[in-house]
Amino acid sequence: MSNNGLNIAIEYDDLAPHTHQLEYLTKIKEHLPEFKVTLFTIPLDIRYGEPVRITNPEYELWRKAIRACIRDGWMELALHGLTHNYLEFKNLDHDQAVKRLITAERMMREANLPYVKIFKAPHWYVSPEAKEAIQNKHIVHGIGEFGGMEVVEDGYYHWNLKDDMPKPAEMKDVKVMIAHGHVMDGNGCNNGIQETMHKILDLPTDTNFHFISEIL
Ligand SMILES: [Zn+2]
Fold first, then answer.
1. pLDDT at 110 over 70
2. Of 7, 38, 47, 85, which residue is 20 to 30 A from 122 by alpha carbon distance?
């Protein structure tokens, strides 16, 4: 890891075929050639009523575009629940969590979207049983291996992108600053890609970008 310049890992929540802001991410990448981003992805998004399946044939062009960004080495996908139902993982027991986890991972695989073994529960809510279920490995004969994931929880990031960047004095013992936001603007979080991208574009030119998977 370079000692010069700021070390940062940027992550946004709620990637789905209808909420992606690829255009803006690409713009950032054009301005900052070293830019890297981790996107927490929803395989079966029910936030807006009609379920949006990441595997749906109509999203193949979108999947191609995402795959190209991953292949070009500046984007990685992590898992953000299955449906993003409010409190989706808050009250699940072990077996219920395993079922949702397996469905989510199967959908990512069926969509042919490479992802890293990192999980963030919708709205950060995860029961202790669900957390353990996600961390454990589950082998389903004839189908594959699931789980074995790192679970990230609220407070693991250092910079909420709606705020000013933490001062260097606050980051003394931090090797890589984790910056957190959402793909979409508004929703009370106000740390969406469009509304905060000026802060990313203002980062020093010698900034070193990292994926979340590289620093956990
Ligand atoms: Zn979310």
1. yes
2. 7
142 Cα: distance to centroid of ligand 1 (angstroms): 32
Listing DSSP states for 86-150 in one string gives TTTBTS--HHHHHHHHHHHHHHHHHTT----SEE--GGG-B-HHHHHHHHSEEEETTTEEEE--E
Q: What pLDDT does residue 2 have?
A: 52
In the reported structure, the alpha carbon of residue 187 is separated from the centroid of ligand 1 by a whole-number distance in angstroms of: 11
Q: 81 and 41 in contact (C-beta within 8 Å)?
A: no
**pTM assigned to the model:** 0.97
Q: How far is the CA of 141 from the centre of ligand 1 (A)?
A: 31
Ligand 1 midpoint to CA 37 (Å): 16
**Which pLDDT belongs to residue 3?**
57
Residues with CB under 5 A from ligand 1 (ion): 13-14, 122
pLDDT digits (tens, 9 = 90+) for 19-37: 999 999 999 999 999 999 9
Cβ neighbors of 152 (< 8 A, separation 6 or more) are 118, 119, 120, 212, 216
* Chain centroid offset of residue 150 CA: 12
Predicted confidence (pLDDT) at residue 146 exceeds the cutoff of 60 = yes
- Fill in the DSSP letter of residue 211: -
* 207 DSSP 8-state letter: P
- Single-letter amino acid, residue 77: L
